[in-house]
C-alpha cells in the first residue's frame, strides 16, 4: 500500500533503496542539517534498509518518498508513538538535491501527516529542525506547525553548536489548514 499526495507517493522502504540512501547519507550537503556525521558504508545502509523494510508498524513508520512517476527522492518517518500519548516525532530528508525547493518535501509531510492523524489516530506530531535552516523552518510554518521552543546548542556540526527549534502541529490544526478527513460512512454533502 502506498500513500499518495499531489506530488509524491510514500511507500515502504525496500532493500534496493540502500544505494540511494548510501549516496545521500555520505553527501555533506544533504546531511548539513541532519544528525548524521560519520561516514556510512553501503553495508550499513543495506542493513538499515533491511530493518526498515521489515519493521514498519505503529511504533515506527519509515517510508520512502517517490515522485509520482516512481523516482526515489527521499525518506520520511514517524517515531516514538505510543497508544497512550498519541504523539510522534516526524523526520524527513529529500536526498535528491535536484528536487529541493520544488514542493516535494511539503507534499510528503502533508501526506504523512494525513496518514498519522487519520489512519494512526495520532493527535500531535512534532519535529526538531536546526534553527538556522530557514527554508525548512519556513516550510513547516507554512504547513501549520507552531513553534514550541528551542533547544540551545544541541546540534554540533560544521565546527559549531546550533540551536534546534521544536515545532508541532495538532490534528485539529492540520484539519483546519489542510481539510478534515471524511470518515467511512459519512454522508457526502452537496
Describe this structure in words.
- This protein is an alpha+beta fold and 190 residues long.
- The protein has helices spanning 18-25, 42-54, 104-118, 134-143, 171-178, and strands at 3-4, 8-12, 60-67, 72-79, 87-94, 124-130, 146-157, 160-170.
- It has a single domain, classed as Gcn5-related N-acetyltransferase (GNAT) (Aminopeptidase, 3-Layer(aba) Sandwich), CATH 3.40.630.30.
- An 8-stranded mixed β-sheet has the order 1-2-3-4-5-6-8-7.
- The longest helix has 15 residues, at 104-118.
- The chain is globular, with a radius of gyration of 17 Å.
- The two termini are 30 Å apart.
- Mean pLDDT is 88; it is low at 183-190.
Count of alpha and pi helical runs: 5
- Describe the main β-sheet briefly: 8 strands, mixed
Please state roughly what percent of the residues sit in beta strands, choosing from under 5%, 5-15%, 15-25%, 25-35%, 35-45% or over 45%: 25-35%
Number of domains: 1
The topology string of helices and strands comes to EEHHEEEHEHEEH
Shape: globular
CATH level-4 homologous superfamily: Gcn5-related N-acetyltransferase (GNAT)
Number of strands: 8
The structural class is: alpha+beta
Features:
5 helices, 8-stranded mixed β-sheet, disordered C terminus, Aminopeptidase, alpha+beta, globular, 28% helix
Task: Please specify the SSE layout and strand pairing.
Elements: E1 3-4, E2 8-12, H1 18-25, H2 42-54, E3 60-67, E4 72-79, E5 87-94, H3 104-118, E6 124-130, H4 134-143, E7 146-157, E8 160-170, H5 171-178
Parallel strand pairs: 5-6
Antiparallel strand pairs: 1-2, 2-3, 3-4, 4-5, 6-8, 7-8
Amino acid at each position: 500500500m502506498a500513500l499518495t499526495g499531489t506530488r509524491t507517493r510514500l511507500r515502504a522502504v525496500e532493500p534496493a533503496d540502500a544505494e540511494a540512501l548510501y549516496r545521500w547519507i555520505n553527501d555533506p550537503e544533504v546531511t548539513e542539517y541532519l544528525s548524521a556525521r560519520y561516514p556510512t558504508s553501503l553495508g550499513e545502509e543495506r542493513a538499515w534498509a533491511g530493518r526498515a523494510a521489515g519493521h514498519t508498524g505503529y511504533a515506527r513508520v519509515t517510508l520512502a518518498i517517490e515522485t509520482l512517476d516512481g523516482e526515489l527522492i527521499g525518506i520520511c518517518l514517524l517515531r516514538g508513538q505510543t497508544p497512550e500519548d498519541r504523539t510522534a516525532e516526524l523526520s524527513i530528508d529529500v536526498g535528491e538535491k535536484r528536487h529541493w525547493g520544488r514542493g516535494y518535501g511539503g507534499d510528503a509531510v502533508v501526506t504523512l501527516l494525513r496518514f498519522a492523524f487519520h489512519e494512526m489516530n495520532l493527535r500531535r506530531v512534532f519535529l526538531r529542525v536546526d534553527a538556522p535552516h530557514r527554508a525548512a523552518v519556513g516550510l513547516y510554518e507554512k504547513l501549520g506547525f507552531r513553534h514550541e521552543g528551542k533547544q540551545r546548542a544541541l546540534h554540533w556540526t560544521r565546527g559549531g553548536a546550533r540551536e534546534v527549534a521544536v515545532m508541532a502541529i495538532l490534528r485539529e490544526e492540520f484539519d483546519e489548514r489542510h481539510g478534515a478527513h471524511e470518515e467511512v460512512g459519512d454522508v457526502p454533502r452537496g
